[in-house]
Amino acid sequence: RTVYVNGDYLPETDAKISIFDRGFLMADGVYEVTSVLDGKLIDFDGHVARLERSLAELEMASPVTSEDLLEIHRALVARNGIEEGMVYLQITRGAPADRDFVFPDPDETPSSLVVFTQNKPGLADNPAAKKGMRVISIDDMRWGRRDIKTVQLLYPSMGKMMAKKAGADDAWMVQDGFVTEGTSNNAYIVKGGKIITRARSNDILHGITRAAVLRFAAEAQMEVEERNFTIAEAREADEAFITSASTFVMPVVEIDGVKLGDGTPGRVAPRLREIYLEESR
Ligand code: PDD
């Protein structure tokens, strides 16, 4: 595989980052994940806009322009022959000479940029979408700025492990009694045809797929309510689903071992998945 590191396209085995990079030492970095269908980037503008917001919130400089980023993404998709898959980009606050909590001067320490691809044939035609997924609920123990897409992914990784050990596919995180989001996706329930999802705030990542799906839902005259919901309410819902760049729209059929409705994906989530895939590619 060819990857991009700080200006160079290299075989992945030749790509190097300093051991003093703050991404490695302090998780001082942000990232984005963009899906590829039919060799084309999905929702790229949204991902770049969110990246710029994440960078600004952390007073971090981008080493390249958004036009450059698009070119790098396209170059890697072409070089690696990605028809369906993902492009991952990470920007960290670079590698100062001395480890220090204080941010280094950006003129002396440029940010690092790494971009790589993952081939995922069958991403759109994912059989998991027909079956639906099972989630467990766990405490949300992440930091308070989840609207910034940082590379601090340890708690989400732990959450996925808790789910795996419980024989489930993912975990929905709960704060003060209300669901925030999935470990790497936004969470929704459907009740009486109405789509319910938590409103945007610092508590959740403002999903790019979420924005598109809510727009398509409104265009299809589906009712959407942005508000908090509990696990108890979710268990009583007709349907549930998640959205993310890597899963698009994925039905949830079981929460903490309780089947939703008849335990099948239902109508709303599969329809939204269909619309999303049709409209975005
Ligand atoms: N995750 N919430 C969290 C915590 C996420 O990590 C993600 C994305 C989302 C959905 O955002 P979007 O629709 O823009 O992908 C919500 C990516 C896919 C990842 O970490 O792999």
From TrEMBL:
<dbReference type="InterPro" id="IPR036038">
    <property type="entry name" value="Aminotransferase-like"/>
</dbReference>
<comment type="pathway">
    <text>Amino-acid biosynthesis; L-valine biosynthesis; L-valine from pyruvate: step 4/4.</text>
</comment>
<keyword id="KW-0808">Transferase</keyword>
<comment type="similarity">
    <text>Belongs to the class-IV pyridoxal-phosphate-dependent aminotransferase family.</text>
</comment>
<dbReference type="GO" id="GO:0008652">
    <property type="term" value="P:amino acid biosynthetic process"/>
</dbReference>
<dbReference type="InterPro" id="IPR043132">
    <property type="entry name" value="BCAT-like_C"/>
</dbReference>
<keyword id="KW-0032">Aminotransferase</keyword>
<keyword id="KW-0663">Pyridoxal phosphate</keyword>
<dbReference type="InterPro" id="IPR050571">
    <property type="entry name" value="Class-IV_PLP-Dep_Aminotrnsfr"/>
</dbReference>
<dbReference type="InterPro" id="IPR018300">
    <property type="entry name" value="Aminotrans_IV_CS"/>
</dbReference>
<comment type="function">
    <text>Acts on leucine, isoleucine and valine.</text>
</comment>
<comment type="pathway">
    <text>Amino-acid biosynthesis; L-leucine biosynthesis; L-leucine from 3-methyl-2-oxobutanoate: step 4/4.</text>
</comment>
<dbReference type="InterPro" id="IPR001544">
    <property type="entry name" value="Aminotrans_IV"/>
</dbReference>
<protein>
    <recommendedName>
        <fullName>Probable branched-chain-amino-acid aminotransferase</fullName>
        <ecNumber>2.6.1.42</ecNumber>
    </recommendedName>
</protein>
<keyword id="KW-0028">Amino-acid biosynthesis</keyword>
<dbReference type="InterPro" id="IPR043131">
    <property type="entry name" value="BCAT-like_N"/>
</dbReference>
<dbReference type="GO" id="GO:0005829">
    <property type="term" value="C:cytosol"/>
</dbReference>
<dbReference type="GO" id="GO:0009082">
    <property type="term" value="P:branched-chain amino acid biosynthetic process"/>
</dbReference>
<dbReference type="GO" id="GO:0004084">
    <property type="term" value="F:branched-chain-amino-acid transaminase activity"/>
</dbReference>
<keyword id="KW-0100">Branched-chain amino acid biosynthesis</keyword>
<dbReference type="Pfam" id="PF01063">
    <property type="entry name" value="Aminotran_4"/>
</dbReference>
